[in-house]
Amino acid sequence: MSIETTQPVQTEAERLSAAPTYDNRTAFADELIRLARTDARIVAVCNDSVGSSNLTAFRDEFPDRLINVGIAEQDMVGVGAGLASSGLIPFVCGASPFLTGRSLEQVKADVAYSQHPVILCGMSPGMAYGELGPTHHSVEDLSWLRALPGLDIVVPADRQQTRQAVQAAVANPRPTFIRVGRHKVPDVSIEGAPLVRGEFQTLRDGNDVTLIATGTLVSRALVAAAELEAAGVSVRVLNASYIAPLDIAAIIGAARETRAIVTAEEANIAGGLGAAVAGVVSQLERGARVPLRILGLTEFAPTGNTDFLLEYFNLTATHLVTAAREALADA
Amino acid sequence: MLTTDPAQVEQWRELRVRVENASSAVERDAELAGSAKRTRRSVVNMISSAGLGHIGGDFSVTDILTTLFDYTLRIDPADPGKAGRDRFILSKGHCAAALYSTLAFSGYFDPAELSTFMAPLSALNGHPNRNKVPGVETNTGPLGHGLPVAVGQAIAAKLAGSGARVFVVMGDGEMQEGSNWEALMSASQYKLDNLVAIVDRNRLQQGARTEETNALDPLDEKLASFGCEVRIADGHDYASLITAFAPSTTGKPVAVIANTIKGKGVSFIEDRVEWHHKVPSAEQVRLALEELA
Questions:
Q1: The pLDDT of residue A4 is above 60
Q2: Fewer CB in 10 Å around end: N or C, chain B?
Q3: What ipTM did this prediction achieve?
């Protein structure tokens, strides 16, 4: 009788950390093409970003349905609004910092206020462009866009949710921003679980502390939860796949049913997910106003690649564990 | 959301028939001039009762709006969202009083609603909102937004093969916004010969003359170099505007420089920078309505 000793026993956290990772832009482009084959309303609009938005295959298959306006983001979003007002479903794709920053007034007036059902696809958001620096980081997008009524904000955490976000946009077109990640992430959502508008997804249930994470931070929250659980702490993990509409019920549930909350986002904390959660928790009754820790950016990033910068801003599983313990100590 | 006024639509249809079937240009222009005067009187009353508004630009664009709605546009105010309709965007959204009056007299909604202009909770905001006012295709107000949206609508019309045309009016000062030039480049790239970009060239912006602020001339050469078929029109002459709004003959997008007078129609308001958004006194209202009778 032999005993397998070649592999050391892997912890849950190690297993999660070692999972294969994917660029969500691939799933985005594949799903867009698949749906475009049977739905002639789908068009794509871009700002010279055919390659970086992974639209090369879309262009090759539907040359008339890719509208490339060149390096002109204000025009791009306005054109998207005009297409949407004519019954088409435009997926307006551009590097997220420029799509949201340069054309913010178009997003406000032409998309959100006008209620033209444009699908704004912020490619390579957060600090995906690492060493290119703060000009190319999209870490203000959640704050800026949360202030616009009538605009959905979707942050798919993995390939499945990215495909589902594209499907939802086609099934029920409405003004929407989708953060389409470039920094590779593992599959984290429950296989087959639907992406429900305005709902967080519960990835793990627990009653000591709740970790609410979005996008790239979801897999890190799962690793942190596994580490905490191994130490006897019961952890709820919520995947904030929709930032708007906000899942107020899930936040209230976390505040009432667990003793502390930690949020984590690859975005500036001034007005992002954490601020949204704080806005809900602060209005609750005594006892439900649980300790809260908000992890995210607080300044323009220094030079470094994405992984370095996530570490620099305490956006790692280790820091999530520390923040959870601190918050619980306050409870 | 306001709704169609069927009786008013009927009146507008009859006006369109009279304009279309006029036995002479003189007779046709008299019909259009009567319609434009009604719009200008409405603008005076609206701004007077609201105590706010942009009377100078309202008056400079009135004859352009009249020509479009009473002659050129293929639209049905009884069915504002009709597929394949021509589109109109007033990019200079601050001239909402002229637009609302034109839309109401075309039957998109009851003209009685005009008296609520800018009152609390009125559908008639200081800048037009498509979700409240039928006939408004997109919300405008911040300058430089209408033309890119019009480009998107023109591309959509091409993709659909509908033959619909898209008309958009910018103020001349508005052409200082860079987004317009981005949009003209793409209009040219996509050969949008179904697009008509109209510049209300009254030569005044809020604080001064355009040429003393950030000069636009030679505007015709600029527009031509961006790939437009440029037409110069007298913005208060219906025959000139009708010709300028005819389909493109070159396969290029059409840019119309409509030379206008800010405040056109009331002598003491014409071409005076202070009347950008001045509100007339009771006596000035009386005098203005007299001139517009």
A1: no
A2: C
A3: 0.96
- Indicate the residue of A85, A88, A109 with minimum beta-carbon distance to B141: A109
Number of structural domains (chain A) is 2
For the record, the structure tokens of B151 come out as 């480009």
* Shared-domain flag, residues A127 and A249: no
Q: In the predicted model, is pLDDT for residue A1 greater than 90? A: no
Q: Report, in angstroms and rounded to the nearest whole number, the Rg of chain A calculated over CA atoms.
A: 20
Domain assignment of residue A58, given as a range = 24-180
Q: How large is the angle between the packed helices B25-50 and B96-105, nearest 10 degrees? A: 120
Predicted confidence at residue A6, as pLDDT, reads 62
Please indicate if any CB of chain B lies within 8 Å of the CB of A141: no
Residues A34 and A169 in one domain: yes
Backbone dihedral angles phi then psi of residue A49, each to the nearest 5 degrees: -95, 35
Any B CB within 8 A of A148 CB: no
Amino acid, res. B277: H
* Among the listed residues B130, B162, B5, the one whose alpha carbon sits nearest the alpha carbon of residue B78: B5
Using an 8 Å CB-CB cutoff, list chain B residues near A113. 129, 139
Between B138, B150, B154, which is nearest A116 by CB? B138
Fold of the B6-291 domain: Rossmann fold (3.40.50)
Smallest CA–CA separation between B186 and chain A, in Å?
6
Residue B157 tokens, joined: 């019309």
Domain ranges of chain B: 6-291
